[in-house]
Amino acid sequence: MTRTALGKYEIRGHLGKGASAEVLLAWHPVLKAPRALKVPFDQSPETTDKLTLEARTQAQLVHPNICQVYDTDEADGTFFLVMEYAAGGSLRRLLKDGPLEASRVVDWMVQAVEALRYAHSRDVVHRDLKPDNLLLSAEDAVKVADFGLARILQPTEEARTRAGTVPYMAPEHLKGQATFLSDLWSLGVVFYELLTGAPPFRAESQWELASRIMSSDPEPFGEGVLDHPPELWSCIRRLLERDPARRTPSAEALAEELRVLQPLLGPGLLPRAVRRPEAEDLADVPLSQEPTVVAHDWPQGRGGPRRAGSVAPALVLPLQMAWRAEVGSPIVAPPVVGHGLVVVGTTGGELVLVEEAWGRIIERLAVGGSLPAAPAVLDGKAYVGGYGGRLAAVDLVERSVEWEAELGAPVGATPAASKDTLFVPMLDGRLVSLQRAGGAVSATWTAHGALASAPLVVDGLVLVGSRDHRLYALEQEGLSERWRWEAGGWIDGGPAASGGLVVVGSYDGTVTALELATGRVVWQMRLPAWVAAGAVLDDECAYVLAFDGTLAALELRDGTQRWRVRTKGRHLGGPALSGELLVIAGAEGLITARLAADGAERWSAPLEGECLGGPTVAGSTCYVAGRDGSLMAFR
């Protein structure tokens, strides 16, 4: 049956359909404006969660060349996205008539790369650029669409799945290592196809095509298009370098190169006048001629299937367990995520490297002595110490111990790492400054009690709490003391700093905010039980979790209690903040997500074991380590 309405929207036509969704032309009766509604065929919670992630990622990218997502909505049991309507359709529709004029193609590529430059500057890699996802407005402006496979990355990070559309995937993307340069490859494939009418790599099957992309050069350019300036083909050839190190280095560099090309191609045709079609004019055109594959479609997948989709900068609930790795020895500190790995230390003295995507244990490194604290990870290196009295530097790329430093006493907490220096807290009261290159000791300072608190490096200072009830501020160079402040109990939770304030909790249940520069007390708040873990801060609040399960949000400016709730169980680890959610895990074997705005519970799940170190959130995944030796990933 043909739809005539969906919620408040009048349905005026059918724009297309793909394997998983259809797109309808709709009319907003109040705003008197057209909209595109993306309606998934599968209305399961997993699919709607995926579309919500897509909408959230795309809605945060506000740019004239990115198709805007206005809203998500649900009507009559049907979930859908409300998007900007691009009257000109996709570039795929134009390819039906063969190669396109070079000057117009370059103009489109300039606009597309501006959208990419904007997205990449916000750490978003698209991962599914193809003619189907490059739309045109009525004024011939490019609109990059469909961020359903987008991923939030740090500049040196890789998206370690094989989600994408094979003819447009870069060689490293096919191996499961997509980066920002993989988007440039995909745009190069589109560029080639628009100018020649066919993609640069062709084969009879998807697997043969993937092999050809990873091992062969592009198809030679046809004779009919060789009259274009050689600079044009050189530009495309650099985009299609198999080795990313030889590829055009950034979207910004490509934008500059294309602007140089524009005057070489002449004025070209005037922009098309595109009439917004009426319902009776619309053809049922497929959204994509090529299937988008997800991780578990790929035959070389390592481990079980992983949900494909975009990764937002905040968790979207509800979560499900994605994988569980049995490490074998108890884990009493939170996991650390970096370089595609989840890194945990065990009470058995091993640093275990687990594949972030699939949960496969790929290396076990013996460090010696129980490891009671999480490692510090920086620039592809993990620094970890334990009760064996040594600090080890582990290369996460080579998966080997680079150096070890003998310190003569147990390491009680996570070291702090700066550009060139490590600051290691010792249970004999020493704070030892080591050179990151080689591990040579450069300075030592001693408190009057054990250091079981992770130091914090901020504004040229090293802040560290001690079991002598004091918080110390030391100069980063030389470790001379600038100020000290005395609490009413041990300080085992690491300090946190924001906006010139330091927030620290102590074993007498007091949470204190101090001036970073002077150590002067700004405010104090008392909780009903001791605070064993550090606070987590956003721009407005400090979120503190006490041992008895009291979770409180305190205003940073004056310590006013915004809200307080009592959670289940005992808690030695602190909360994790992800967007609008706080995630906590405790010794009672329960993981819970609560709203940062009011502390209301949104989701919880059993862990089947005690969690002593608290959860770790990275992107859209929450990692929890258990005292039973299990490491779990929730997505």
Quick one: overall form? globular
Q: List the uncertain runs.
A: 152-162, 268-314
User: How many H/I helices?
Assistant: 8
Q: Rounded to an integer, what's the Rg over CA atoms?
A: 27 Å
First-residue to last-residue Cα separation: 36 Å
- Strands, total number: 43
CATH class of one domain: Mainly Alpha
Q: State mean pLDDT (0 to 100 scale).
A: 83
Helix percentage: 10-25%
> What is the CATH topology of one domain?
Transferase(Phosphotransferase), domain 1
Q: What structural class is derived from the secondary structure elements?
A: alpha+beta
CATH superfamily of one domain: Transferase(Phosphotransferase) domain 1
Strand order of the largest sheet: 1-2-3-4-6-5
Return the CATH architecture of one domain. Answer: Orthogonal Bundle
Question: Which range does the strand content fall in?
Answer: 25-35%
For the biggest sheet, the summary is: 6 strands, antiparallel
